[in-house]
Design a protein that fits this description.
With 402 residues, this protein is an alpha/beta fold. It folds into 3 domains: 80 residues, Winged helix-like DNA-binding domain superfamily/Winged helix DNA-binding domain (Arc Repressor Mutant, subunit A, Orthogonal Bundle), CATH 1.10.10.10; 127 residues, Nucleotidyltransferase, domain 5; 168 residues, Nucleotidyltransferase, domain 5 (2-Layer Sandwich), CATH 3.30.420. Helix content is 40%, strand content 20%. A 5-stranded mixed β-sheet has the order 6-5-4-7-11, with helices on both faces. Helix 8 crosses helix 9, helix 8 runs antiparallel to helix 10 and helix 9 packs across helix 10. The longest helix has 25 residues. The protein is globular and about 70 Å long. It starts with 13 loop residues before the first helix and ends in a 7-residue tail after the last helix. The relative contact order is 0.13.
Length: 402
Amino acid sequence: MGSENLSVIAGNSKVLRSINRTRILNIIRETQPISRSNIAKLTGLNKSTVSSIISDLINEDLIFEMASEDQNVGRNPINLFLKLNKFLVGAINIDSSITRFAIADIDGSIKGQSSIETDSSNPEKFIEFCISELLKLCSELNIDSLEGLGVSIAGIVDSKNLIVNFAPNLGWEDFNIGKVISKSLPDIKNIAVGNDAKSSALAELWFGDHEMNLSNSVFLSIGAGIGAGIIIENELINGEYQASGEFGHMIIFEGGEHCTCGNYGCWEAYASDRAIVSQYLAKKPGTFDHNVDLMAQDIIDFAKNNDPLSIEVLKKTGFYLGLGISNIIKAIDPHAIIIGGKITQVWDIIYPEIINVVTQRAYFGRKKIIKILPTSLKVLPRLLGAATLAIEEIFDGFKITG
């Protein structure tokens, strides 16, 4: 969440204090090192209220204070920092072929990673196996306990009730993943489950390196399918039924290619990793590993080595991406669109095609062209996104329910 919208509500109730705590903690996360007086200026709270909340955060071991060594001032100011190596979270990203695990700190830094092949045939057993794999990673890193766990999944996820409503690439429907996690990890307080593209958007907002305003932005996650996370005024948009951002299933060609959702002509049937593989094999049938992740990576590697067919397929993918992005721009009017996925490895091939289509179809006299950029995250966005879901639970001391 951006600091420009971190105005704080003043008041004496426990609810308002909890809101103020969350805002102050996020200001420290975004701007550290920062002094108490600067926090008071940013929030408009009086200094005694700020100091009281800061004392609570220090007692909770979430932050620490340290005098800065500034030769130009008479008295060195006391600055505040996040306290690391204290509250660690687990992260699990589940996609159709590979499930990845990570342990992260509250600043988004990754302590360790591992992965396994996805077996989605029995969701309960698979999640139990994932928990055992995560605990094995903890053991390898000499980590005794986790403060939270975040899980990101491609599909429609009820984040409030921790239920996977519909994950077509996994074959899961109405799966109470939260219940299975809680049974396997009864001592973990902060459990969060979310859509992989939405969690990626959150990770980019919290931990990305783009030096620009992402308070109104869209993150496109290009993988076996296409998902999107929408950020409006620094808030992740979920929608009435948790299904916002399902742009991968908007129809761009009526009666077109068959999609995994059962419809025809969906965007992801033309611009996803699965589409890249399908288009390549249609032109050059051959023996490939049937893992879409690996096959798409092979085609991208061929293009890096100047293979004409691979370049042709990827350029066409860029064109199709441009079609969908044009519609998103007209619908959302974001400041920026961030793209994540292995396809960004050939940005020099796909970006000219994207921007050519977008320039022709999206702007209608707009003077400023929207930034379309590859993700700045060094870790797989949907994996860091899973961690960010759990980290957000720790930072957000106040939840509106009902």
